Amino acid sequence: MTNTDVLAAGMADRELIVRLAFGSMAAQTLRAAARLRVVELIGDAQRRAADVAADAGAEHQPMTRLLRALTGLGLLEEHTPDTFSVTPAGALLSSERPDSLTSLVRLLTEPVLVRAWEHLDGSIRTGDIAFDTVFGTDFFTHLAQHPELSLVFNAAMSQAAGETAAALPSAFDFGRFTTITDVGGGDGTLLAGILDAHPALAGVLYDTADGLAQAPEKLQQRGLTERCSLIAGDFFRSVPKGSDLYLIKSVLHDWTDEQAVTILSHCREVLPPGGRVLIVEPVLPDVVTTTAQSHAADGGITYLSDLNMLVNVGGRERTRKDFEEVCHRAGLSLTSVTPLAEATPYSLIEAVAD
């Protein structure tokens, strides 16, 4: 390696650290864009910053600076000085799109969640949940006490499920089952996608009353009211019987191993002969994988999610071995783990009764 190569590598390393250090600022830039509805105001054409500012009730110069920052992040394009359009990536910040990620952005940049991250080092030292320490209650109790935040959370979970809802129906053999219960299924985005693709399948959506709040409207929009029952309850106490497939997506990672075992045990208790439990979550490799394009296979997002579980709710992302252990403790055995290629980083984890 020549001196020039060494210098170039050193500069790249410095750029990586600086870019990561600016990460929270980039996230808050997205939050400001979402709150000001910048993408909706620009629309499908080129618009002058002054016009966007006027429509947003903002000052012209600060708006120009925001739009240029969004351009630097790849979300807008500046054609002539002070004139901008939206890139395909930036269009995902439009709340008017069915595949919008606006609510997800607002949740992940929500000051309540960010505040707990300020105490990440403390959580690592002690294993304690920073959120509980800071707010004096757990995250989900806090959600129940703050309806506006609960609405954002539910919308964010729906948006996060959209890609999986498109990919999952053709990635698993749902045709061998008669009834599917989506445990912790929220507004039904994922279950609706499965039922749409499999007309002979009946569905049960199971969540807390707050979690189900938007489900009736979602199911009515999709014409699934007659095929899908809504049951409010607590999966730490029980899971409704009567299905031969129990689906659990993005639920177990919110909880400790002991709590995950409790949820899975309740599924095992009502699982009929030949029934299955299908877990949809990221599966961490035994060793962090890297590529030439990123410092982890998914850019490190799953590992950041793991830390988010630590500081905000006390859960964790898991390896295959971790899933095998919690399933075994619940009386279940893993039969397969299949990456969901069209909805990275999720995998399909199929389990049967021991």
From TrEMBL:
Residues the record marks as active site: H253
Residue span(s) of domain O-methyltransferase C-terminal: 117-332
GO function terms (MF aspect): O-methyltransferase activity; protein dimerization activity
Domain O-methyltransferase dimerisation: 19-93
Keywords, comma-separated and alphabetical: Methyltransferase, S-adenosyl-L-methionine, Transferase
Pfam families membership: Dimerisation, Methyltransf_2
Keyword Secreted appears in the UniProt entry: no
Transferase among keywords: yes
GO biological process: methylation
InterPro entries recorded: COMT-like, COMT_C, COMT_dimerisation, SAM-dependent_MTases_sf, WH-like_DNA-bd_sf, WH_DNA-bd_sf
Protein name, per record: SAM-dependent methyltransferase
Organism, as annotated: Streptomyces zagrosensis
